[in-house]
RNA sequence: GGGGAGUUGGCAGAGCGGUCAAAUGCGGUGGACUGUAAAUCCACUGGGGCAACCCACCUAGGUUCGAAUCCUAGACUCCCCA
């Protein structure tokens, strides 16, 4: 990167590794110097929570606000009804409108922790707020997509799109090359997303759309459309698509996706995810996911040998603090130290509470392992036991048929799967 | 509208009447080595059940002593022609 930005925002993006590509570095940079730039990122409501894969976008919005600009979080209430086909091998199952609304409610919760939306009264404010402050805006594209009239839309918007060009986008090419079907419904997604950008520019003066590099095509479409319809020049900026250094997709743990909502991924598990970062990723992640000064990130990343573990603890603490608060981070760290350094138990371990009713005459150890989340199925639990990977209070379980009664559970027991995954079981 | 090909475990992809829960690769889990790292090596890896055992190769029927494999109908996908 030879470009030297004048704006704080661009400087941070470049320094910290957020920048994959930008449609026009210089003009965007100048706009950022001149005044408050409203910028948006869209989030589709395909699940009740976002996961760490979206954290990089959230951090971009946070930096945007920190450097004096206005973040707009756009919920895809309308677009989720269509489903983004970009770089996907198959069609997503269609979600019901109710499910989408419920997902949006879940997703919204997390943003309040990262962005300042101002007072309730300001939150839904319209154009009035724009340019006057940099309070974040929470919007939903269902607002303008739900009521669209098909023919009007085709005539006003559709005429600006060339199917030839749409087919040439990398995001759908692989799908077509693999001879997988791409429904007309999905094919329209990029038009709707482009229209979002147009509407956000028209209504809120939004100048910039950000997103992962998989969104490049969709973003560029919005820029082109806005130029044609409104003759406004607006910008796009993408972040690299993150994989860990060992080539895996960002954000998976043994229990699946690492969610940002606390009720779907406990702070302790969240903390563990970061604590287990691969050595090679520590520096990169510190810059992207924490707000520690660059020099500090680099110092920590340079630690040698087992000392990088200290850097990983800092990383876990910082990221967990942003997402769940300082208290939760401290509790997670305390539990981790207790469990891993002393081989004991900690309050923050995933805990399964059973009522006397549930136990009845006794409950099998296999069931306990499954219900505490250490195995996905009974078969898996039994396999674990057979391979000596399952432990109860640190003693290997040898008997898969073991049944525990209420008396055996009168004091909490610790179940372990391997060396790293632990859970507590106790009476409610 | 007509013709052809296909649908197999988390994914990719073999199998084409019994020895098939089903090759192989990826992914995942456990173990060894370590630093709660990476790389490497070893093992395991469809589901339910404490177990006996049961369910399972798109769906529903059928033929067979016996079907993922054959037949019929249906659903979905891809290709070619109009």
From TrEMBL:
Binding site for ATP: 252
Recorded catalytic activity of this chain's protein: tRNA(Tyr) + L-tyrosine + ATP = L-tyrosyl-tRNA(Tyr) + AMP + diphosphate + H(+)
GO molecular function: ATP binding; RNA binding; tyrosine-tRNA ligase activity
Pfam families: tRNA-synt_1b (PF00579)
Protein keywords: Aminoacyl-tRNA synthetase, ATP-binding, Cytoplasm, Ligase, Nucleotide-binding, Protein biosynthesis, RNA-binding
Localization terms from the record: Cytoplasm
Entry keyword Cytoplasm: yes
Gene3D superfamilies for the chain: HUPs (3.40.50.620), RNA-binding S4 domain (3.10.290.10), Tyrosyl-Transfer RNA Synthetase (1.10.240.10)
Residues annotated to bind L-tyrosine: 40, 189, 193
Major enzyme class: ligase
EC numbers, comma separated: 6.1.1.1
Keyword Nucleus: no
Motif stretch ('KMSKS' region): 249-253
Gene Ontology BP annotations: tyrosyl-tRNA aminoacylation
GO cellular-component term (any): cytosol
InterPro entries reported in the protein's UniProt record: aa-tRNA-synth_Ic, Rossmann-like_a/b/a_fold, S4_RNA-bd_sf, Tyr-tRNA-ligase, Tyr-tRNA-ligase_bac-type, Tyr-tRNA-ligase_bac_1
Motif ('HIGH' region): 45-54
Protein task: Catalyzes the attachment of tyrosine to tRNA(Tyr) in a two-step reaction: tyrosine is first activated by ATP to form Tyr-AMP and then transferred to the acceptor end of tRNA(Tyr).
HAMAP family referenced in this protein's UniProt entry, alphabetically: Tyr_tRNA_synth_type1 (MF_02006)
Similarity field: Belongs to the class-I aminoacyl-tRNA synthetase family. TyrS type 1 subfamily.
Subunit structure: Homodimer.
Identification of the protein by name: Tyrosine--tRNA ligase
Origin species: Pelagimonas phthalicica
Gene that encodes the chain: tyrS
């Amino acid at each position: 990167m030879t470009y030297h930005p004048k704006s704080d925002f661009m400087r941070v993006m470049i320094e910290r590794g957020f920048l994959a590509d930008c449609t026009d570095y210089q003009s965007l940079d100048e706009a950022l110097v001149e005044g408050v730039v409203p910028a948006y990122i869209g989030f589709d409501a395909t699940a009740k929570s976002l996961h760490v894969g979206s954290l990089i976008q959230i951090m971009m919005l946070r930096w945007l606000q920190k450097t004096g600009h206005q973040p707009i979080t756009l919920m895809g209430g309308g677009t989720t009804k269509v489903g983004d086909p970009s770089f996907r091998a198959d069609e997503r199952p269609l979600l019901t409108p109710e499910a989408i609304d419920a997902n949006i409610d879940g997703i919204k919760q997390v943003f309040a922790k990262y962005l300042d939306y101002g007072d309730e009264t300001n939150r839904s404010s319209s154009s009035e707020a724009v340019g006057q402050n940099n309070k974040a805006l929470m919007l939903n594209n269902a607002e303008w997509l739900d009521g669209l009239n098909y023919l009007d839309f085709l005539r006003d918007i559709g005429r600006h799109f060339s199917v030839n060009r749409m087919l040439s986008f990398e995001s759908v090419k692989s799908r077509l090359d693999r001879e997988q079907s791409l429904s007309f419904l999905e094919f329209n997604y990029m038009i709707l997303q482009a229209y979002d950008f147009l509407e956000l520019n028209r209504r809120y003066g939004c100048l910039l759309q950000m997103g992962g590099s998989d969104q490049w095509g969709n973003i560029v479409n919005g820029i082109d459309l806005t130029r044609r319809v409104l003759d406004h020049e607006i910008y796009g900026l993408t972040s690299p698509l993150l994989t860990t250094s060992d080539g895996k997709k960002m954000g998976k743990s043994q229990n699946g996706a690492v969610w940002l909502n606390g009720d779907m991924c406990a702070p302790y598990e969240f903390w563990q995810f970061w604590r287990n970062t691969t050595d090679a990723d520590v520096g990169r992640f510190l810059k992207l996911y924490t707000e520690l000064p660059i020099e500090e990130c680099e110092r920590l990343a340079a630690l040698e040998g087992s000392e990088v573990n200290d850097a990983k603890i800092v990383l876990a603490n910082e990221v967990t603090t942003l997402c769940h608060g300082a208290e939760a981070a401290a509790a997670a760290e305390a539990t981790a130290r207790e469990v891993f350094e002393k081989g004991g138990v900690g309050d923050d371990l995933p805990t399964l509470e059973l009522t006397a009713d549930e136990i009845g005459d006794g409950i099998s150890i296999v069931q306990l392992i499954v219900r505490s989340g250490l195995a996905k199925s009974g078969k898996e639990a039994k396999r674990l036991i057979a391979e000596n990977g399952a432990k109860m209070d640190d003693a290997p379980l040898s008997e898969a048929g073991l049944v525990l009664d209420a008396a055996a559970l009168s004091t909490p027991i610790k179940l372990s799967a391997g060396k790293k995954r632990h859970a507590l079981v106790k009476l409610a």
